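debug: dumping io for the single-chain case to check the tokenizer round-trip. Nothing else runs in this session.
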Amino acid sequence: MLDPNPPAGGGPAAMTVVDAGGEPWERVEPLLARRMEELPPGTVLELLSTEPQVCEVLPGWCAERVHAVYLGVPVGDASVFRIHKDALSPLELA
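debug: decoded output
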């Protein structure tokens, strides 16, 4: 699930940031999966990517793992995503 409007106040602060740059999804996915495993439930990871495929695939990947994903404010030419681990719905960040 992708919500283009993060909650007022930005929700919880990101515990970690992954700057994937222009790396393809095939390289980003294992790193992202490992980082999400390391985080406790309910925390937030911020992912930055300039790769369009990552932006397309990420919402489905998060939905399969019951993580809520929000599109954040772009940083330069990068898309920014805030991934809330084990969130059942976007309302949990409100």
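debug: round-trip ok. Residues 1 and 80 are 15 Å apart (CA to CA).
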